[in-house]
Write a structure and sequence with these properties.
Strand order of the largest sheet: 3-2-1-4-5-6
Radius of gyration: 18 Å
Strand content: 15-25%
Number of strands: 14
Bound molecules: nicotinamide-adenine-dinucleotide, (2S)-2-hydroxybutanedioic acid
Number of helices: 10
Structural class: alpha/beta
EC number: 1.1.1.37
Catalytic activity: (S)-malate + NAD(+) = oxaloacetate + NADH + H(+)
Distance between the termini: 33 Å
Helix content: 40-55%
Protein name: Malate dehydrogenase
Order of helices and strands: EHEHHEEHEHEHEEEEEHHHEEEH
Function: Catalyzes the reversible oxidation of malate to oxaloacetate.
Largest sheet: 6 strands, parallel
Pfam families: Ldh_1_C, Ldh_1_N
Length: about 300
């Protein structure tokens, strides 16, 4: 499998590193507009190959899309990250132009590519990628829910004082500070509902901590996070490579599912060789439906700025 990662910055390099360490792809191409930057990151990563025991070949290029030709998967991480105090939505004016031109360049050289969109505001950038490329909807996937769910599990494990491998949970909705919907009702510790172990008040705290997970890290780091985002993308790329039909909440184009149309927003999906193999429609309570509707309203408001 050939994977292109556009943007060799913090998230792009982390994606490339995790993909290589898992050793399931034959080739990763890093591409960036900053002269020599992707080449440098690729060389540095390749010098970890003998230490980390991988055979994936990582190369870098400065904006030469011919090097990305015939990629099976492309990950778009190009664009600016937020600074402390900003929302992801504030990045739209810079990142929309970057994501649109990158998506157009990618499909010129890789007509069969599956695109994973990471750049923020991610749900709107995923929608924009659909509009810019016209690719079949199963080949454009926004990454947000996989990361948000990992953060939810981290917070759940902390609250339960349990190993992370014991907890399960999922976050749907928009990838934003207010739009995420951690599905607390369905969270479990080894199949037992977490409500058995923690109070409603503590559960509400876990929910709020999860929703502002990205903002909390941005405040601590001075820029947004990269390790967990890179790991989340690599898990999705691996599910495509292995055709594993693994369930991740992903932002994908909805056409009536969950009562929503012409919008990209996080819902449970099965990810396999086709990209989005299917959208899984789970039964939501009235209050969860109301949260999803309001999250969708906010995403539409950002989409209207395109
Ligand atoms: N969806 C998510 O869950 C998630 C998680 C983390 C970060 N992000 C987003 O990912 C993006 C990247 O974050 P980062 O921390 O890696 O930023 P970064 O600044 O470290 O890296 C971005 C890179 O993109 C490059 N770039 C800019 N324009 C380009 C173009 N036209 N073609 C190729 N490369 C270009 C820059 O030169 C830079 O190296 C941000 O928008 C951030 O908000 C999303
Ligand atoms: O928080 C951000 O701005 C980056 C990313 O969306 C994240 O959730 O880490």
């Amino acid at each position: 499998m050939k994977v292109t990662v556009v943007g060799a910055g913090a998230v792009g390099a982390s994606c490339a590193e995790y993909i290589a360490i898992k050793d399931f792809a034959s080739e990763v191409v890093l591409i960036d507009i900053k002269e020599g930057f992707a080449e440098g990151k690729a060389m540095d990563l390749m010098q970890t190959a003998s230490l980390n025991s991988f055979d994936t070949k990582i190369t870098g290029t400065t904006n030469d899309y011919t090097k990305t030709a015939n990629s099976d998967v492309a990950v778009i991480t190009s664009g600016i990250p937020r600074k402390p105090g900003m929302t992801r939505e504030e990045l739209i004016s810079t990142n929309a132009g970057i994501v649109k031109s990158v998506a157009e360049n990618l499909i010129k050289h890789s007509p069969n590519v599956i695109i994973i969109v990471v750049s923020n505001p991610m749900d709107t950038m995923t929608y924009l990628t659909h509009k810019a490329t016209g690719l079949p909807k199963h080949r454009i996937i926004g990454m947000g829910g996989a990361l948000d769910s990992a953060r939810f599990k981290y917070r759940l494990a902390e609250a339960l004082d349990a190993p992370i491998s014991d907890v399960d949970g999922m976050v749907i909705g928009g990838h934003s500070d207010t739009g995420m919907i951690p599905l607390t009702r369905l969270a479990t510790r080894n199949s037992v509902p977490v409500s058995k172990f923690i109070s409603e008040e503590r559960m509400e705290e876990v929910k709020q901590e999860t929703k502002v997970g990205g903002a909390t890290l941005t405040k601590l780091l001075g820029t947004s996070a990269w390790y967990a985002p890179g790991a989340a993308v690599s898990a999705m790329v691996q599910a495509i490579a292995n055709d594993s039909k693994k369930m991740f909440p992903c932002s994908c184009l909805l056409e009536g599912e969950y009562g929503l149309d012409d919008i990209c927003i996080g819902v449970p999906t099965l990810i396999g060789a086709k990209g989005v193999e299917s959208i899984v429609e789970i039964e939501l309570t009235e209050s969860e439906k109301a949260e999803l509707a309001s999250s969708a309203d906010a995403v539409r408001k950002t989409n209207s700025l395109l």
